[in-house]
Task: structure prediction
Amino acid sequence: MSTEAVMGEAEVIRKHHEAPVTHELLSRDLRTLGLEPGMTVVVHSSLSALGWVCGGEVTVVQALMDTIRPFGNIVMPTHTGHLSDPARWEAPPVPQSWWEPIRRSMPPFDPEITPSRGMGCIPELFRTLPDVVRSSHPHFSFAAWGEGSVEICANHPLDYGIGEGTPLARVYERDGFVLLLGADFDTNTSFHLAEYRSHYRTREELYRMAPVLVNGHRRWKKYRDINIDSEDFAQLGRDFCRSHEKDVRIGSVGAGKAHLFRQRAAVDYAVEWFVKNRK
Result:
């Protein structure tokens, strides 16, 4: 383990020193929050926010699976925004002299092996587990487990990658839930689905590019999208909680805070919120 990782773990222990978080504790807290067998739920998570979890991300995923059971569905984002044109990179940017070498050598997206980036260790582990399937979008893939996982991830369109016909829309069709597990509303990708459905003034059409496999050969593919933006999601989430106080379940899971709510309610609210607040 790296020195940085050890220091990070020590900080978690210092902040949450009362007791370790166990599988039994997580399962109990998830049930108390309102998670039930058979639900379809999109999970956004932060392992460090839950305290010192005995078994780490493995324990968290197992507790979720044991609670939802195989006749429900767990969905997690496994996005790969780093597989993109380096000319548009900003965090951090790279020298212009690097652009062409990167374009020539960047591996294509492969749902079996391409790691997610910036999603956290819980979804990164989740995508590798047996019986978990992953959708095919080179930037906005999702992984799913459960009875409807194949249908949720199938035929993920390249254009408008978090809009209609995507795993997020499939969860909406199933009247699924969103679980923010130690994570805040700024991670709630379901608000992006609302961006595609809303007609706010600052919405713009654009193109993105990604390396993909076409008949076994690597190709850069251009696709259509909009200028999705999560900078105001935290405020949107606070407003949603205030207006849907009775519908948003808030509680502790491990040492962290969790929110559970119906995805449809959040998406429908956000569609109108964007029109009013994105000027």
